Amino acid sequence: MTVDFYRKLPSQGFRVIIFRVHSTGECSMENITSDWIVFFTGETYSTLKYVQWQMNAELVQVHFTGQDSPLYFGITPLFVKQRMEGEFPETAIIMMGCEGLKYDSMAEAFIQRGAKVYLSWNGPVTATHTDTAMTNLLEHLLLERMTVAQAFAETREEVGLDPTFKSQIEFYPIFAAPYIIPEPSA
C-alpha cells in the first residue's frame, strides 16, 4: 500500500475496510514522543518525497523492530485528518495490525472522517491470532448480522487473548456498540 493509496481510499466508497498492515503505537519524531498509532505503507522512505507532509508530521519513517529493516513511510492520524480525500460514511474500519487501539488517536481520526466504528488490538498480536480472531469477528458482523458489541463478545469468548502478547480486540467509539454493518446494496 502506497501513500497515494491511503490518500485516495475514502473516495472509493467502501463500507467495510480491512487493513492487514503493520502498525505501531511507538512513534517518536525528533525527540517528540506521541500517543499516535502509525500505519506502515509499503513505500520505501525518502527524505526527498512528500517533504511538506513529513514536516507536518503527517508522514513519518517507520521500520520493523529487531531487524535490519529498510525504512518505510508511515501514515499518522494527522495524515488521515488532513490528507485523505473524501469521507468514510458509516464505514467500519477493521485494523488487524498490532496496537491499532493502544491509543485512540488513529481511531478518532477515522471517526472524524465519518467512519462509524474502528476495530483493532490494544497491543501487539501474532499474525495467526489476528487472522483467526478477525475471521470470526467478520463472520459475526457480516454473515450473522450481529451488533458490534455482540460480535466482540462472541469473538473474545471463542479466541481469547493473543496467546503470546495477551492483547485483545476492542472497538471505538463505545457508542458504536449497537451498530450493525448495513448489508451491501444491490
Structure commentary:
By secondary structure, the protein is α+β, with helices and mostly antiparallel strands. It has one domain. Helices cover 29% and strands 22% of the residues. It is built from 6 helices and 10 strands. It has helices at residues 3-8, 51-55, 77-82, 105-112, 127-143, 148-159; strands spanning 16-19, 23-24, 27-29, 32-34, 38-44, 59-62, 72-75, 92-95, 117-121, 169-172. A 4-stranded mixed β-sheet has the order 1-8-9-10, sandwiched between helices. A 4-stranded antiparallel β-sheet has the order 2-5-7-6. It is globular and about 50 Å long. It starts with a helix and ends in a 14-residue tail after the last strand.
In short:
The chain has 186 residues and is of the alpha+beta class. The chain is built from 6 helices and 10 strands.
Shape call: globular
Q: Helical amount among residues, as a percent range?
A: 25-40%
Number of helices: 6
Beta-strand content bin: 15-25%
Low-confidence stretches at least 5 residues in length (pLDDT < 50)? none
Strand order of the largest sheet: 1-8-9-10
Mean pLDDT: 93
Distance between the termini: 28 Å
Q: Please give the largest β-sheet.
A: 4 strands, mixed
Helices and strands, in order, run as: HEEEEEHEEHEHEHHE
Radius of gyration: 16 Å
